[in-house]
Amino acid sequence: MTTKTSVMRAEIAEQPEALRRTFSELLPLRKEIEALGRETEHVLFIARGSSDNAAVYGGYLLQVHTGRLATLGSPSVATVYGSRLDLSKVLAVAISQSGKTEEIVDTMRWAADCGARTVAVTNGADSTLAEEADVALVTRAGKELAVPATKTYNTQLAALAVLALGLGAKLDPGELELVPQGIEETLAAPTDALEEIVERMVAVQGAVISGRGLAFSTALEAALKLKEACYTHAMGMSYADLLHGPIAVVDPRTPTLLMAAPDGPTLQGTVALAERARSAGSPVFGFGGGEALAAASDLSVPVPDVPEWVSPMNLIVPAQLLTERLARRLGYDPDVPRGLNKVTQTS
């Protein structure tokens, strides 16, 4: 096990201030977002990797709280097939931490050419993505050096929360202030449960990570982090999809990691899944979910009690900490996973 402090761990700790800066920068842009909203009806997200997981959060948030249909785009429709679509009533939201991923830039250009209005969510203030969008939501994460995205991912969630407010979500903007406070609490909390989860995952080859609704994005991102930095065969799924067959992989050799807000309409189903996984002999590790999920889990990591719509920004932090600790426990460098670069180019 390596003992040096990783860049990834330092960047996880920078998230409270990164979120505060991002909220301060972006909340004044709600009027500009509102103006785009008056011209459009539906939302198309354009993203890859961690940004795609952020888009899953954005999709649920908009559909649940603004009444707008929101969907994940398939960039290959534009970049490989060269298809033409009528996007005249669409708000295309392109998400890229660098703003330099050519596929995302090209797809946003294609969407605009098809009649869409455009929003960029990026940490690259001077990037092509920011410069060409109708409205640029530039996050203030600061430079991110570790390859696994932590603070850039979470500030993307922050930007999408502001987007929802600008598009008419009847939510309290003041509740955003709870997010950085909650992360500070998580970073300062005892780590006994997290360390035990790390030890119990050292010898496993695969894991199931699940959540539903607004927490589904967290399950996907947690699975991606474990694959990137720990080389774990981690499967991130909605628990509804998990029950449609893949639940068969859950056994004593395959831990089940469950993500849930402290309350909300998906919590009961998450608790039921925990009970089913335990009955199959799977070690169950709960993240969030309040007392109900903790009682149904073998080990649990509490998350501050915040409203469901902002909880993914808090929920992802213990998963990031788990990834960083597990990577070092396995002898890997979490900052530079093999075969990966900070900016990935696809076509």
UniProtKB/TrEMBL annotation:
Top-level taxon: Bacteria
GO BP term, example: carbohydrate derivative metabolic process
Domain SIS, chain residue ranges per copy: 32-173, 197-337
MF GO annotations: carbohydrate derivative binding
UniProt entry keywords in alphabetical sequence: Repeat
Gene3D superfamilies assigned: Glucose-6-phosphate isomerase like protein, domain 1 (3.40.50.10490)
InterPro entries, per database record: GlmS/AgaS_SIS (IPR035466), GlmS/FrlB_SIS (IPR035490), SIS_dom (IPR001347), SIS_dom_sf (IPR046348)
Transmembrane regions: none
SUPFAM superfamilies per UniProt: SIS domain (SSF53697)
Keyword flag Repeat: yes
Protein name: SIS domain-containing protein
UniProt source species: Nocardiopsis alba
Lineage: Bacteria, Bacillati, Actinomycetota, Actinomycetes, Streptosporangiales
